[in-house]
Amino acid sequence: MTDRRPLLRALYDAAVAAAHPNVVLAPHLGPAPRGRVICLAAGKGAGAMAAAAERHYLDTLKLAPERLVGIATTRHGYGVPTRRIRVVEAGHPVPDEAGLKGAADTLALAGEAGPDDLLLVLLTGGGSANWIAPSDGISFAQKQAVNKALLRSGAPIGEMNVVRKHLSRIKGGRLARAGKNAAQIVTLAISDVPHDDASAIASGPTVPDPTTLADARAIVAKYKLDIDDAVRRALDDPANESCKPGDAAFSRAHFELIARPKQSLDAAVKLARESGYETIDLGADLEGEAREVAAAHASLALQARAQGKRLAILSGGELTVTVRGNGRGGPNQEYALALAALLKDTPDISALAGDTDGADGGAGNPTDPAGALIDATTFAKMKAQGLQPQAYLDNNDATTFFEATGDLLLPGPTLTNVNDIRVILVD
Length: 427
What we know:
This is Glycerate 2-kinase. One of its GO terms (cellular component) is cytoplasm. Keywords: Kinase, Transferase. With 427 residues, the chain is of the alpha/beta class. It has helices at 5-17, 21-24, 46-60, 97-111, 127-130, 140-153, 157-165, 174-178, 213-222, 229-236, 261-274, 290-306, 331-343, 376-385, 389-394, 398-405; strands at 37-42, 68-75, 85-90, 118-123, 184-190, 253-259, 278-281, 311-315, 349-355, 371-374, 408-409, 420-426. It starts with a helix and ends with a strand. The mean pLDDT is 96.
């Protein structure tokens, strides 16, 4: 059997490289303002975006260093060296005290923007957890508890962010409101959400929010979330409604997407074709329960195998897991585990599922796995060790399974985030 792992990893790496801040940011950065550049960044690529912004303004445009200030709040382990923009490493997916302080400092700095200053907001996925500023009347512990309940509920990211936006002083357009005195607010974002909805990326801190408090309450009811009475009161309080179109905060605000999941998926599809595979591109916006999507994709792969095709099946998007067990893992590992259960008798099918940010579930550590790979060696180890995939699925314990087979995908922090990349190769 030909080892397809190098190709699987190359396809993943191509998707990540297409969205790296070093590649995508500089072409979208404009001239220096009359006053200062105040750079406020959040998310898993925030440190890398801040460093790229420094190169543009300090090195290319020769801006005086004292005219560039800022704060970049990112995930623990995702910081990079910077010169003028302070990097704060904070909790993700569950917010922590560092994120709380980072968000407070960010709001304060936005409030200092004057009529000659550019407020440059740089966003990547993860910003919702990194920038944590609970609404008045809600404690930090109560906000953390809401986050944990949402993460376990199986709710897609868009619905999670509807609730988050209505319990925040920074999300849902409120950062733009804080920086309303700036000459201009320019937001450059790397999308990690299906359909590239600007109001969902990092929970839309600088754009109008079409969702309402009523929507947030409906999501709490839909998933039967166990929330504190203070949180219920906050979701009933009209003062916590997010900023809507027409708000004066957006009169000088400009939003631009600089990288999309589709660009990264396209890069992987191109490489698969160059490697001699016919391709099926299932799109960059897939959502759904990880094991159910895996079943549909396994069916496609088995059909292609029966027809004697050499096929690559590729997809992006963000899958979810409804947590019923107490194991470790994330949507990509659960998808790969479900595939392993369904494809265990097919040595000529291999697959990779990984989050482009380098972390799939996990404990919020830089060493968390991004996903997993499966192939004939996985199936052989399953058999030799007597591993039953279904038992691990029942406990949502994909990480333990793939630790046993040695198949975890461990790229480390990638410094970007454009959702997941999934590839099945049928030889």
